[in-house]
Amino acid sequence: MSLLTSFSADCNVAVIGASGGIGEAMLRLLSDDSRVASIHALARSGADGSLPKVSTGSIDLSDEGSIATAAQLAAKNDALDLVIVTSGILWEGEDLRPEKSMRELDLQRLMQLFAVNAAGPALVAKHFLPLLRKNSKTLFASLSARVGSISDNRLGGWYSYRASKAALNMLLKTFAIEHGRQWPDSVVAGLHPGTVDTALSQPYTSRTPKETLFSPATSARHLLKVMNQLSPEDSGGVFAWDGSRIQY
Ligand SMILES: NC(=O)c1ccc[n+]([C@@H]2O[C@H](COP(=O)([O-])OP(=O)(O)OC[C@H]3O[C@@H](n4cnc5c(N)ncnc54)[C@H](OP(=O)(O)O)[C@@H]3O)[C@@H](O)[C@H]2O)c1
């Protein structure tokens, strides 16, 4: 069984942020997928290397050298078909929390969220996009968030997270234009996974209705289906877990 029927057989896949809730669930599905030949599970804190077809490697988004090395290793034996960035940050410890008000804005917090959520995936794209296979459908996807949509911002708050994801969306669109000139069969996209029960969302889901809170496995399955449906005309866009387009 395969969720990736629109890609070439024997896909070579890289997952960046493979230690996270959604990243790990993605690894499991990819490992079970009959069209996937090899998976490079790249993470800062170590990923599950016990699954079939999975080899692990280390990557720290704040260290461009580690990104460049991980990219070369992932494409050493074969060009890449799919690169999925599942890393990201919303909060950390007691001091780094999403802002409720402009009074809480802080340069350090803004820079940290931009570094991990926008600059990190951009450097991953810089080093991984040139290593994608040519002449068959390939995809570079980075997990964005609906709250990064400027036109959809009705509630305010969460300044750093919203802005970092909006910046990510702009970066992805810009990569899509340049990359598409030489890789016309390729798709570069941002994906919104839904509200997913992971460490990232855990402090903020107490009021989320149970039926709209996805398990990581459910979200990952939806996302792989969307990746399978996307075509080069969609490149540069942002899409939700159900395949619907999210306006910037
Ligand atoms: N969960 C949701 O409801 C939700 C909703 C909308 C969008 N998203 C997006 O989905 C993505 C995945 O989120 P998740 O819910 O799976 O979160 P998660 O379980 O907290 O996983 C986050 C991942 O990001 C990695 N990471 C953070 N900083 C890093 C760095 N400097 N270098 C390398 N890796 C780093 C973490 O690695 P370590 O293990 O090393 O810390 C971890 O693998 C994020 O981009 C998030 O914004 C999630």
Describe the structure.
The protein is built from 5 helices and 10 strands. It has 248 residues and is of the alpha/beta class. The chain has a single domain (11-246), classed as 3-Layer(aba) Sandwich (Rossmann fold). Strand 4 (82-85), helix 3 (107-128) and strand 5 (138-143) form a beta-alpha-beta unit. Helix 1 packs across helix 5, helix 2 (64-74) packs parallel to helix 3 and helix 3 (107-128) packs parallel to helix 4 (159-182). It starts with 10 loop residues before the first strand and ends with a strand. The protein binds NADP nicotinamide-adenine-dinucleotide phosphate (NAP). NADP nicotinamide-adenine-dinucleotide phosphate binds at residues 17, 19-23, 43-45, 59-62, 86-89, 116, 143, 145, 192-193, 195-196, 198-201.
